[in-house]
Structures are given as C-alpha cells and as structure tokens.
Amino acid sequence: MFQQRTRWLRRVRCGMVGDMATRTGTPERPRARTVSPGRPPKAAVVARWRNILEIAAGEFVEHGYAQANIARIANTAGVSKKTIYARCPSKDDLLIAVVNDLASRSHAATTTAMSECGDNPQQVLTRFGREVAQNWVAPEHLGFYRLIIAEVPRFPQLAAVYRQVMERFGTTLADYLREQCAQGTLSVPDPDAASRQFGMLVYGELRERALLGETVTQQHIEGVVQRAVRVFLVGYSSPQH
Predict the structure, then answer these.
(1) Which own/partner pairs from 169-175 qualify as long-range (CB within 8 Å, at least 24 positions apart)?
(2) Distance from chain centroid for Cα 195
(3) I need a labelling partner for 119 at 20 to 30 A (CA). Which of 21, 66, 75, 164 fits?
(4) In the structure, what pLDDT confidence band is assigned to residue 50 with cuts at 50, 70 and 90?
C-alpha cells in the first residue's frame, strides 16, 4: 500500500511540474534527434567508382587477369570488397567494366574532337585518326591489348569485349562516311569496310612500334595520320568534287 501511494505522489508531482511549465510559458526542452548520414551525393558515388576502375585497370595491366586480386584493389581504393562485388559479382565482370569504361572515355573524346571540326572531311578524319592513334600507343590501352592477346585462349569472352570496343569506334566513323556520301562529298561503296581500312592505316604501324617497345613520338603520329587521310580521300573522293 505504501509503495502504491509513493508511485501516485510521483505522478502527481510530475503532473504539477508539467502544468507549471505550461502556465509560466517555459518551453519544454526538445529531444535530441539522431541525424542519419543518408546516402552520399551521386557525384561522390560516381567519383569513387571511377577511382576503383582506375585502380583495377592498373591491377590487371600489372599482374595480368589470373593474378589480379580483388582484395588488393579494394584495399588500394580504400573500400570493402563488398563495394566492388555489388557492382561486379565476379572478376570477369570487373575486367569488362574496366575495358568498357576505358573505351567509353576514349570514344567520348574522339566524338567530341570530330564535332569540333565542322563538316570538313579532311579535318574530321584527321582528328579521328589522331585520337585513335594516340589511344593505341598510350600505355594503358597498350597494356590492355597485350592482356587480351595473352589471355584470350583461356578466356574467349575477352575477344568479344575487344570486338565490341572496336565496333564502337568503327560504327562512329562509318556513320560519318554515310553522311558524307549522302551529301556527295565522298563516294564510299562500303562505309563499314572503309572505316576498318582507315583505322588500320592510322594505328597499324604505330601500334606495332609501340608493342615492340619503340618510342612513338607525336611527330610520328602526325605523319602517319596525314598520310592515311590523303590516301583515304583520294581513294574515296566523289566524282562531283
């Protein structure tokens, strides 16, 4: 009985204090809210993934496909393996993501360069050829080409990835050639075949030199590209021009 009365007095006193606070206008102290960190900004997520892909690219080029280590990539990038596996469930998927990212950035730079030349075929072909040639002799691109050639007997899927990358660039040039044919500027019976021919003209020799460890200078690149453009324009010039 005594304990019940004590609890009753406590409730009464609490009620009196609450009533007094209300009557005197004394504001009640708000409860502290727990602030959720929320999701990081989209730009930060994109930047983090780009950093992971760059580190993964270096890992694949340096160690090869078989010896590339997801844990080492994650540790260098400062993330957990779960972060990588959430996007790429396997090492195969990560390699494909790296190659596609590299190709996408190169392709975007190439199409931007072409768009800056207006509608002059000589200038457009020169910019396209220069971008492609510079890509092929860049250490990162060259490293992945070596990797694909070395690993494709064991991992045939790499051949498909390589062909997809090459077709992306080939289609861009072939579409441009079709536009020029429609305008009467060029006469190209088979734009798809012609785009492959032009590609080999601008990077075939340079890629071979780079693969053999020879130094390829910007002067070499400019000379090869200019010759390729001249040969191409003479071979596919329109009778109207």
Answers:
(1) 169/107, 169/110, 169/132, 169/199, 170/195, 170/196, 170/199, 171/195, 172/107, 172/110, 172/111, 172/114, 172/128, 173/128, 173/198, 173/199
(2) 24
(3) 164
(4) very high
User: In this structure, which topology does domain 91-235 adopt according to CATH?
Assistant: Tetracycline Repressor; domain 2 (1.10.357)
pLDDT tens digits, one per residue of 52-76: 999 999 999 999 888 999 999 999 9
* pLDDT over 80 (residue 18): no
What pLDDT is stored for residue 48 in this prediction?
Answer: 93
The whole-model pTM stands at 0.75
Whether 91 and 56 have beta carbons less than 8 Å apart is answered as no
Residue of higher predicted confidence among 36 and 129: 129
Q: Locate the domains of the chain by residue range.
A: 91-235
Per the listing, tokens 């990077």 go with 203
Task: Give CA–CA dist 122/125, Å, rounded.
Answer: 5
